[in-house]
């Protein structure tokens, strides 16, 4: 497996401060947070944000707002149909991780991702779709990084990606990895590099020292290394999307 299944580190973290400025809409029956770039009523490029297990909450909404501020239509769907995790519930021991994962596998998630992609292509006429997959969402980025689906991919500390899913990608992929990560370990990073080199796709893998799994979306930002890592991981995603769009537009 290119990255291990979710573990306790995937279900913990810190809520970030800020006020989301986007809006909630429905795409079919999928509740979706959307942030629009200022001054662009018909954006031609979008970022689909595939979330970690906490789904739509302040941290992921603020990231969507940041993508919009950089000129992208940012779309953050509720992958879990209301069955998202809550940090406080996990800390209180109210979450049965295996049971939750059994309800939220590819049979449930794939159709929701497919519906949002179809909406972007057909209803909004978006020409290029980038995708940022965080932790849990990294698996579904890999599954949909195909011609006619997701054009450009970025993932931070991915979980649950199989060797076969990674080997089957058809478009460029960038990865932000944490030095301390029991899900995307050093051995699995190196194995992923080997798989990516065999795909023939343009790829990038940046390693951030001093941070742990989840640093790009839910780390404790009072710690300078975490704050630096989160900000630089986001800049990595933006630089990757901008470059790939300029080359392959």
From TrEMBL:
Any matching Pfam family: DLH
Gene3D superfamilies assigned: alpha/beta hydrolase
One GO BP: antibiotic biosynthetic process
SUPFAM superfamilies named among the record's database cross-references: alpha/beta-Hydrolases
Residues annotated as domain Dienelactone hydrolase: 30-242
GO MF annotations in UniProt: hydrolase activity
InterPro entries in the record: AB_hydrolase_fold, Dienelactn_hydro
Protein name: Dienelactone hydrolase domain-containing protein
């Amino acid at each position: 497996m290119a990255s291990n299944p979710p573990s306790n580190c995937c279900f913990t973290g810190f809520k970030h401060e800020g006020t989301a400025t986007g809006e909630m809409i429905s795409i079919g029956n999928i509740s979706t947070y959307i942030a629009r770039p200022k001054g662009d009523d018909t954006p031609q490029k979008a970022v689909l944000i595939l979330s970690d297990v906490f789904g739509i909450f302040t941290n992921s909404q603020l990231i969507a707002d940041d993508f919009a501020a950089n000129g992208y239509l940012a779309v953050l769907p509720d992958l879990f149909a209301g069955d998202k995790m809550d940090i406080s519930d996990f800390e209180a021991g109210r979450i049965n991780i295996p049971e939750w994962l059994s309800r939220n596998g590819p049979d449930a998630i794939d159709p929701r991702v497919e519906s949002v992609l179809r909406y972007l292509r057909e209803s909004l006429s978006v020409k290029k779709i980038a995708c940022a997959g965080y932790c849990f969402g990294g698996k579904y980025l890999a599954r949909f990084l195909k011609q006619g689906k997701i054009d450009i991919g970025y993932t931070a500390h991915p979980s649950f990606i199989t060797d076969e899913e990674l080997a089957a990608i058809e478009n460029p992929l960038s990865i932000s990895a944490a030095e301390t990560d029991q899900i995307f370990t050093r051995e699995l990073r190196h194995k992923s590099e080997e798989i990516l080199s065999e795909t023939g796709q343009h790829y990038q893998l940046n390693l951030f020292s001093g941070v742990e799994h989840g640093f790009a979306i839910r780390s404790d930002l009072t710690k300078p290394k975490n704050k630096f890592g989160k900000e630089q991981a986001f800049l990595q995603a933006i630089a990757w999307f901008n470059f790939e769009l300029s080359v392959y537009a």
